[in-house]
Amino acid sequence: MIPLAAALPAAAAEGGAADFSQDVFWVWVVKAVGILVFLLLSVLIAIWFERRVVGRMQLRPGPNVHGPFGLFQSLADAMKLLLKEDVTVRAADRVVYVLAPFIAVFCSLLTMAVIPFGPEVSIFGVVTPLQLTDFPVAVLYILACASVGVYGIVLGGWSSNSTYPLLGAVRSTAQVISYELAMGLSLVSVFILAGSMSTSEIVASQTTVWWLIPLAPAFVIYVISMVGETNRLPFDLPEAEGELVGGYTTEYSSMKFAWFFLAEYINMLNVSAVATTLFFGGWRAPWPLSWIGDGVLNTGWWPLLWFVAKVWLFMFLFVWIRGTLLRFRYDQFMSFGWKVLIPAALVWLVCVAAVQGVRQFAEVDVRDMLPWLGGVILVVVALSFLVPEKKQAPPARAADEPFDAFAGGFPVPPLPGQTLPPSPRAARRRAQAPDTPALVGGPGAEGADGDAPESPTQEVPRG
């Protein structure tokens, strides 16, 4: 491992802020169009890639008919969505209902503007960085775009005026609040060591050592948070098909549904690019390729290849997780975010700040202290999962107390041995038509109007 103490002075000496002084208007246009084309083509490839990889994991081929290796399948699916009938819910809030997908897509397209794809290159004779723009708080801008983009999901679920989309929107709100806190805290340790929130300067600070090595716990917390931030398995609670039909997209069809679908995959690329920039050295070649030819592979257009390769490494991680893990229950999901990720991120942040303060003011050699602290924190978090949770015994119920299905605020089925109270509707029907005989049957028989058994003492059958 390269000493951390030696890495920090090198990072400070290099500087590394992107120089946009020679950029003109048409250069900005070329960069913006290039980023847009890169994202749209990457989404088409990502859909095909995910289906192929998951198919291999499930011992089936995946798409392999349309085009070589099935590469045209994503294009065929996009055309199908484009030509499908566009159904608008009659009771929906029309303006917000149509605007929500565009909010999600527009915000997802903004993030890549501050991501450095490479060093300075020559574009039609103009020397410019492979980056659209940069500023001192670029990472905060990324977090802001991600936060605003969730409004598309929230407004889409609310404006549909339907139960399941609304539940998905509410879940998405809680999910963003929970997991963006952990994500933001995991990134603060990078700011402390890099000394900047500018993406180009953070990449420049990783010349000697990638922040993945000294900040491994922060990287693990970020990876878990980015899966929750993008609503991907096992954290796809806002759209959980088994519970909410399709969540916030239930009432959407045709291209409005495709916009949400597009935003999800662009966000996957965004968080992968952020992880590459902040923890994996950005566009820098991996070791030992960075030593070849005195760093010649870190100049010109070669770094664009390393950046894209690292991004797709994280995309494969997304697909691998989807093909491996099951969906969390909502209570497990929220408990994991608030009781594990956020405390672990806070403890790690305090450790990083303390080590950096000791190093700067006390002049103590702490070059290998952070990796050891990170290992201790990871072990403690892993051991916390082995501690059994204390379960409170349910309160004792009197033998003659009738079972109240709505005691907890929502209906629950009775347990074996519990009795249901008499049906109010059946009593009213019987009062209105006293000559109508009640339906007689064995255990579990219902009243004439499909209600529960009329007898308050009849037991619910076991099994």
TrEMBL record:
TM region(s), chain numbering: 27-49, 95-118, 138-158, 179-197, 209-228, 257-280, 300-321, 333-357, 369-387
Main location: membrane
Keyword terms of this UniProt record: Cell membrane, Membrane, NAD, Quinone, Translocase, Transmembrane, Transmembrane helix, Ubiquinone
Pfam families registered for this protein in UniProt: NADHdh (PF00146)
Tree of life domain: Bacteria
GO cellular component assignments: plasma membrane
Top-tier EC class: translocase
Function: NDH-1 shuttles electrons from NADH, via FMN and iron-sulfur (Fe-S) centers, to quinones in the respiratory chain. The immediate electron acceptor for the enzyme in this species is believed to be ubiquinone. Couples the redox reaction to proton translocation (for every two electrons transferred, four hydrogen ions are translocated across the cytoplasmic membrane), and thus conserves the redox energy in a proton gradient. This subunit may bind ubiquinone.
Location of the protein in the cell: Cell membrane; Membrane
Bias-annotated ranges (Pro residues): 411-424
Protein name as annotated: NADH-quinone oxidoreductase subunit H
BP GO terms, sorted: aerobic respiration
Gene behind the chain: nuoH
Self-association state and partner proteins as the record states: NDH-1 is composed of 14 different subunits. Subunits NuoA, H, J, K, L, M, N constitute the membrane sector of the complex.
This enzyme's EC code(s): 7.1.1.-
Gene Ontology MF annotations: NADH dehydrogenase activity; oxidoreductase activity, acting on NAD(P)H, quinone or similar compound as acceptor; quinone binding
Species of provenance: Cellulomonas pakistanensis
